[in-house]
Amino acid sequence: MKVKEVADLVGISVRTLHHYDEIGLLVPEGTTEAGYRIYSGKNLELLQQILFFRELGFPLQTIKDIIYSPGFDRLAALRQHRLMLMEKRDRLDRLLVTVDKSIQHAKGESDMTNKEKFSGFDFSQNPYEKEARDRWGSEAVDAYAAKLKGMEQSGEMAGFQEEMNELYRTLAEMRHSDPASPEAQEGIARWYRLLNRVGSYTPEMFKGLGEMYVADERFTKNIDGFGEGLAAFMKDAMAEFANRQRK
């Protein structure tokens, strides 16, 4: 199957498949004489495995390390996926019960205790936190968390979030332009300054964050909500910004 056929079958973007190829996560079986990627049945099985891991929140590098390790057992991995997905389903079922009870409570049809209002929520694990710690270290992540907590306590968070959304909308308007243009670089410089209000991003870290915007479909989905292709545009603009800082 060609890359577009695989993308349509699976429901992911061609850009995602290209990225998987570039990082060695899913390399097509071959190419046609015209240079089109060709995916085999084994490629599709591997892609299914990758997407199971992604559904469970595993970062791409971890997936690559797992599936290409000498001791990788596909059947054992599938069984583990099933167990983990069942746990996820159970948590979602509990949240659905909470939503249904909340609807009834909002309509005045039933009472609801404070404990019931928060049944099913689990914030013991942050799906982004391990990736951030692996990439930038615990000290940077802890400092970032402390700044966010301080902003929440001082009431600054709502304004900060709206400022981020406004800048997303501004960047979305120019997403079809050259990421290296003066306008794009001015906008992405604002993004750099905004992020550094809650973190301590070096230009290299900033560039790495941009790469995550495309590599991680969770980021892509959220960012592209402001305009399709925004995540890829920001990635290129952030890389250009970081490269200029080295000169």
Secondary-structure topology with pairs:
Blueprint: H1 3-10, H2 14-22, E1 30-31, E2 37-38, H3 41-55, H4 60-67, H5 74-106, H6 114-117, H7 129-136, H8 138-154, H9 157-173, H10 182-195, H11 203-215, H12 217-223, H13 230-246
Antiparallel strand pairs: 1-2
How would you describe this protein?
- The structure is a single chain.
- The protein has 247 residues and is mainly α.
- The protein has 3 domains: 3-67, Orthogonal Bundle (Multidrug-efflux Transporter Regulator, Chain: A, Domain 2), CATH 1.10.1660.10; 73-124, Orthogonal Bundle (Multidrug-efflux Transporter Regulator, Chain: A, Domain 2), CATH 1.10.1660; 126-246, Orthogonal Bundle (Globin-like), CATH 1.10.490.
- The protein contains 13 helices and 2 strands; from the N terminus they run H-H-E-E-H-H-H-H-H-H-H-H-H-H-H.
- It has helices spanning 3-10, 14-22, 41-55, 60-67, 74-106, 114-117, 129-136, 138-154, 157-173, 182-195, 203-215, 217-223, 230-246, and strands at residues 30-31, 37-38.
- A two-stranded antiparallel ribbon has the order 1-2.
- A hairpin with a 5-residue loop joins strand 1 (30-31) and strand 2.
- Helix 7 (129-136) crosses helix 8.
- Residues 1-69 form the HTH merR-type domain.
